[in-house]
Amino acid sequence: MNVEKIRNEFPILKKNIIYFDNACMPLRPRCVIDKINEYYSEYPSCAGRSHHKLGIRLTKEVNMARDSIKKLIGAKKSEEIIFTKNATEAINLIAHSLKFNVVVTSDREHNSNLLPWQKFEHRVVKSNLDNTFNLDDFSEKVVGADLVSIVYTSNLDGYTLPVREIIEIAHNNGALVLLDAAQTVPNKKIDVRKLDVDFLVFSGHKMLGPTGIGVLYGKENLLNDLNPFILGGETVYDSTYDSFKLEKLPHKFEAGLQNYAGIVGLGAAAKFLMKVGLDNIEKHEKMLKQHIDVEGLEIIGYLGESGIFNFNIPGLNSHEVAMMLDSSKNIMVRSGAHCLHSWFNSKNIKGSVRASFYLYNTIEEVKLFNEELKKLKKLVK
Ligand SMILES: Cc1ncc(COP(=O)(O)O)c(C=O)c1O
């Protein structure tokens, strides 16, 4: 992977910033920005209904984008790809479209994969002491559950859960599985068919795509059985004053005119990621992680190989650390509870600093980060 060449694709990197807030939202390559621009300047219409040249062109572009997403995650059919606003909306779609009696999650879920399940009987799998997933606790809690909704890769520390085992155990117990892959799709090769996962959700803006667009993948037979929780234009092919006939997949879930710029931009992002190669991106992040100097830092969560590094400098508030890194050397990190308030509350930790790497980050940037952290550590000695 040629990092210098990749960096040239990201216009904002000319601004001399060190961007380590990728788990929140990475930067966008030129091809994504150009694709959004292309929509507004060349075919700014709506898809699937207008029988004129602009509408026909957009319909083709939307179909191509859906197809790129299908390829990216190894789905069988493009109808199994539902465009949503983001991962949060995709999870809520499932939570509002089906009635579950018992839902199992883990103790390291983003608020988006925790709050929607609290209205059901909700069992939380407790991590092992080293913050890895506890398969024994899971095997007990999954008995009698009808859904396991669990994070694939954690936004806390980049820990990837043993999802193959989780899915197998869940299915053996008759439970469906939803994977929150918001942090996995950007940097790991995923094959939903090999995983045999029932639902998978992710957000465009975390995989180099635009904001305001996300994806719900579902097995065709399951999606066919679900009723949409938002109704309106595009979701039906006919209606009377007191009845309606639902459209087929994927349209029955995509109510109203869509975020077309987001959809075509997401398609461009998917193509870009596949061209660079997700295995290459994953390897690059792991390599960068090895260059972090952890001495004197309090590690938060699991210190694995992934591109997310979560820590505190004892004696310093996480927001102060983030602001000092930004003001001294333009190093941009995230601070606070990372939408994982439940996890932080359970450990009685106020917050932390999260540095997350991506395909355009370099060893030199990590070394500069180490030097700045060294200076900050001296402040509290
Ligand atoms: C693991 C995980 N799940 C869900 C989300 C929610 O994504 P969005 O806000 O794009 O819906 C995030 C965002 O940070 C995340 O990291």
In brief, what are we looking at here?
This protein has 381 residues and is an alpha/beta fold. It contains 13 helices and 15 strands. The protein folds into two domains: 121 residues, Aspartate Aminotransferase, domain 1 (Alpha-Beta Complex); 245 residues, Aspartate Aminotransferase, domain 2.
Quickly give the structural class: alpha/beta
State the total count of DSSP E strands.
Answer: 15
Shape: globular
Summarize model confidence as the mean pLDDT.
Answer: 97
Overview of the molecule:
- β5, α6 and β6 form a beta-alpha-beta unit.
- The two termini are 40 Å apart.
- The chain contains 13 helices and 15 strands.
- The chain has two domains: 121 residues, Alpha-Beta Complex (Aspartate Aminotransferase, domain 1); 245 residues, Type I PLP-dependent aspartate aminotransferase-like (Major domain) (Aspartate Aminotransferase, domain 2, 3-Layer(aba) Sandwich), CATH 3.40.640.
- By secondary structure, it is of the alpha/beta class.
- The model has no long low-confidence stretch (mean pLDDT 97).
- Strands 2-8-7-6-5-3-4 form a seven-stranded mixed β-sheet, with helices on both faces. The protein has a four-stranded antiparallel β-sheet with strand order 11-12-15-14, covered by helices on one side. Strands 1-13 form a two-stranded parallel sheet.
- Helix content is 38%, strand content 16%.
- Pyridoxal-5'-phosphate binds next to α4.
